[in-house]
Specification:
The complex is a heterodimer of chains A (179) and B (818). Chain A has 179 residues and is α+β, with helices and mostly antiparallel strands. Chain A has helices at 24-31, 87-94, 104-117, 123-130, 141-152, 158-170; strands spanning 2-9, 12-19, 50-53, 56-59, 72-74. In chain A, strands 2-1-5-3-4 form a five-stranded mixed beta sheet, with helices on both faces. In chain A, a hairpin with a 2-residue loop joins β1 and β2. Chain A is globular, with a radius of gyration of 17 Å. Chain B has three domains: 47-145 and 218-292, Aldehyde Oxidoreductase, domain 3; 303-464 and 619-800, Aldehyde oxidase/xanthine dehydrogenase, molybdopterin binding domain (Aldehyde Oxidoreductase, domain 4); 472-612, Aldehyde Oxidoreductase, domain 4, CATH 3.30.365.10. In chain B, 26% of the residues lie in helices and 24% in strands. Chain B contains 19 helices and 35 strands. In chain B, 62% of the residues are buried. Classes of the chains: A alpha+beta (179), B alpha+beta (818). The complex binds FE2/S2 (inorganic) cluster (2 copies). One FE2/S2 (inorganic) cluster sits between chains A (98-104, 135-138) and B (207, 258, 496).
Chain lengths: 179, 818
Amino acid sequence: MKQLVALRVNGELHEVYVPVHKTLLEVLREDLGLTGTKHGCELGECGTCTVLVDGEPILSCLTLPVEVQGRDIITVEGLATQGVPHPLQVAFAELNAAQCGYCTPGMLMSAKALLDRNPDPAPDEVREALAGNLCRCTGYVKIVDAVRLAARRQQGDLGAVVEEIERALNEGVVREPGS
Amino acid sequence: MPTNGYDDRKNRSNLGSHLKQETSVVGRPLMKVDAMSKVTGQAIYADDIHLPRMAYARLLPSTQPHARIVRVETSKAEALPGVLAVITGRDLPIKYGILPVSQDETALAVDKVRFVGEPVAAVAAVDEETAERALELIEVEYDPLKPIMSIEEALEDTEVRIQEYGHGGNIHKMVSLQFGDVEAGFAEADYVREDLFFYQGNNHLAMEEHSAVAHYSPDGKLTLWSATQTPHYVHRALAKVLELPPSRIRVIACHPGGGFGGKSDPFHHEICAAKLAMLTGRPVKITLTREEVFYAHRGRHPVLMWVKTGVKKTGEITAMHFRSMLDGGAYGSYGVATTYYTGALQTVTYKIPRYKFEGLRVFTNKPPCGPKRGHGTPQPRFALEVHLDKICEEMGWDPAEWRQQQACEPFSLTANHLRITTIGLKECIEKVVAASGFREKFRKLPYGRGVGLACSAYLSGANLPIYWNDMPHSGAMVKVDRGGGVTVYCGSTDIGQGSNSVLAYVVAEVLGVRPQDVAVVTADTDLTPVDLGSYSSRVTVMTGNAAIEAAQNVRELLFQAAADELGTTSDQLDAAGGRIFRRDDPGVGLPFAKVAQLAEARFGTLAAVGSFTPPKTPGRYKGAGVGPSPSYSYTACVVEVDVDPETGWVRVPTVWIAHDIGRALNPILVEGQAEGSVYMGLGEALMEEQVFRRNLHKIPSMLDYKSPTFLETPDIETILVETNDPHGPFGAKEAGQGPLLPVPPALCNAIYDAVGVRIDELPVTPDKILKALERKAKGQDPRVGPTRMPHVEWVEPIYVEPPDLRHDPSLMPATKPT
Ligand code: FES
Ligand code: FES
């Protein structure tokens, strides 16, 4: 049985006609082409599929699209503002907090939810908030560092961020004391 | 250069095997070249690929651990609307396997199944749901055979055989090597000790489940996109099994979402997707479920070990004898190599003048084991470092000092003829001891708290290839565009460790351009020269050297063209900062793009190739193929623990790790490898295990297969030690696997320091601690671990005389001409 569902994802309205039991994860990836959201278990065990719904992190593999109709869904593709990457994205890239990068979209979403409610989290608060997201590559160290680095930075304009990225790519990243 | 918290001196190389003493790219903590694509969700992983008309495939798993297949009935499945094709073992009967000596796999079971979860049939349908419904309609009739589920059962039961080849019975492989008269060594020792250890198997648990997409075009070309670490080997296996010429197969490795060795074999699902694409004429995608990943496995071998070592009162080791028994699961995979690896690298850390190794691998009715980070060496390293800790305790030696005194010499040969080049072990120990405050803490912390030390070594790539051939292990091609852009092509696969960035760094360094100006094309068998793959920690050393050679070759053309213009000869030029200029007068130069145009006008299209073949191996006996490497990395680790004697719960607040990286091409990437290794080593030491109950995998889900989260992972302090290895690209050695090895034994040594019990069996779960504490309270041996090694008739060892172990300057390899 199929049904028509209206989803607002990254500010865009989509109407999809999908089987009732198809998960939000599958609809995002397969029907909307938003493959930035990943999956590692489809059973709610790894956090890889995390997206934000009205600012709260949820596991899209356990969510049915009907449950989130009309609500604000943000995926990794929606983190940048008018082409300017979110400070979390830049910090993750700079500090090598994304190795294979597969857990990264989910991590970023959980981290964004954290920073939105706690703009300057202590390391333990970061660990607590991200404990539902598994990463097999990084040993989590640089992820904690990156979230804190992002917290210390203000979101810049496009020019400044592009410069920052250029510099990190060609000259070396800034490792602030205590980062 | 802006202040970045890194010491500028890191950018200077002493040995400088590659031209420049001063570098402008190498040594800097740069952002990876593909980092932004990963953090924006734009990097493409295999399951992200969506092609027009794409069909979906699923595999039917065996429900039996060991059985003959009497009948597979697929007609009902075929009749289901939406089903496009159904295949069984009969459609793909040709055997394959990663090693030439164990071509024992078929894409789908043919007449026998050997483990629960082994694929028996595959279906392609218009969507996944239809494919799954079709699987339910396939009937398989099995004739059950006795399952063999452990090393002991495999050795006892010689009647029921899982495979029809090998050493006999259920022994897949048995090896026995002896270097010198170990018995004489034990006789002259003042103290001889024997210990038994067991290291449980575990899974890589890469976050991404394996996935592949196949497309067979009407012009008869097959393309496979796959989450693989080894596109070259997948290419070979597809050609063999599908009986297609290699020239009509293209394998593209997508970004694997983690590998750790788990995506290094050619897999069932890759071959099935290809076959189904050929049959249906449509692209076919197959993505494993997490449960299927546990069945595809190729994870850490469970290994039972026995070690005997003799020492003098003065500290020297007189001889060592090591035995290992590996539980291989149902197929060969890398297992023969793994077996040798459990005996190969014992000798490259401390001076061992006489050494004997006996090892065997058995087949059992479980998913096949294979290579996981450290491939066959974490298990013996665990045994060895705990065993040596016990010897130090018994002899009253300081475990750090003793290890430093006994460390191998630089540029020396080991008893088993492995050539050591640079060795930073002593410095690693010194640094990690200082950083952790080991001396102030060891045997001095209050009950329940403790510290432990362990060391290790790992290879920077295997000197011998997996299949015998005389060709290079790695090839690279560099093309220079008339606009000044540079492209490097190489078969290597970036599995997250940053190998694409390493290619950009070394090429940028040689050509004097910025990493951003270098485009990187990798892991595509149509486009890129062969690189054997991302395994055995070979990529930085081998592809790095190949890319340097290619870049130097193309730079020679650029220099020749620039020389005339600059009124000098090409050997007087240098390249840096996007310019080519006179070394004697750096103000006189030309922009890189301008030189590219001059060179293209003079020589035609600008491109050059480079390749890397590892140095010849000194050892010439059977079994010498596993262990030799261009260089060895060294690691020392201190783990601090907090053990709750009431609950047996172990908390690890901090781990210090010092790693001899040769030279860090990018320190932030090396740190990432060390941190990830510490995390993974702790996971194996404390909780991860692939175990079976009643012939079934006990925990094929992420919820039940426990792995460390943010909360269980300690603070990790990484210290990099640089030794500038003459074989390394700009002096570099490996970092991806070595730092895992000392973590489990350091943990166990710390637990002993904390509560006085020995856990000689991984993982160290709370129940084992409680059991050992209970034994201690009763006055029994305060130890939990194996108590016996099954009896086997070992084959006569191959006897090889050890070389002179002293430092030998003639072993110093010639510096590469630049
Ligand atoms: S995919 Fe693992 S929690 Fe959703
Ligand atoms: S970066 Fe690979 S799983 Fe986190």
